[in-house]
Amino acid sequence: MSMHRRDLLKLAAAGSMLGLAPAFVRAQGSAHKVHIAVGGKALIYYLPLSAAEQLGYFREEGLDVTISDFAGGSRALQAVVGGSADVVSGAFEHTISLQSKGQFYRSLVMQGRAPMIGFGVSTKTLPDYKDAADLKGKKIGVTAPGSSTNMLLSFFLARHGMKISDVAVIGVGAGAGAVAALRSGQIDAILNTDPVISILEQSGDIKIIVDTRTVRDTLEIFGGNMPSSCLYAPQKFIDGNAEIVQGLANAIVRADRWVHATPPEQIVEAMPESYRLGDPALYAFAIGKNIDGLSPDGLVAQDGPETALKALVAYNANFPADKIDLSKVWTNEYAQRAGEKYPHV
Length: 345
Fold this sequence. Notes:
The protein is an alpha/beta fold. The protein contains 15 helices and 11 strands. A 6-stranded mixed sheet has the order 1-3-2-4-11-5, sandwiched between helices.
């Protein structure tokens, strides 16, 4: 019991970080100022962003970067839409959703090549789980109704001949409450990101049945590559700031390469102490579980945008797919140049 309480305290501390004041990086000389908004900077989902900051890659590209941390990706996006930030570090599919509302944003460089969501069943309430049929009538925890975790659940059920109405969907957040809900039996299964999934997995509270922290499971569930975390910005900002945009891509691609070339234990040492949840070994375990889902080169897979659009259409019945021009929501131009400049770590 004391170990579980300690886990919850670690997770609560991590969650409180989302309310902290913005972090600042100051470059020397006449650097270009740029403001990045992110929802949950400490999440492994955004590890390359933190790596680029901690390793000084932004500074080396002549950028004076301010990173503001918000309690969720939608709030980070609001900061850019409202003009208080320049670039979002967020989920790729937002670029498509924004275009459906007449707003043109483009992904510049990838941090993730898979959703990095784990789906686990309780070893206490579903100890004999065999297949999706065992979930019928069960309570399934997602971060929030309408979230990407909810979307993944819908996809999983559909692929096994079931409907979302066959289960009870419950929002449990992405922090200590999610862990408590699973352990107390309030939910029978959970879809979440790290560190929640790694805490429950390491303690034996769940059995993983789908792991989109891996490319293999992502391809199986979505039928194609599903891009995730990236830097994206308004097209107007991109058009007027080519040097800044290329510098951002250079820094993130370097960070992508560094993450894939560095043992998790060394990555832990390079990150702020507050990211470690008071348990460096647990943080290293979680990083290791997500390495495959993190981009190695900053590039969008050619089928990725189409996969993301199909996911949005399947999840939102009235999504105006016929009005979307996918060529306007992404580019590999900047990541390719970055890869040429930094072919190795």
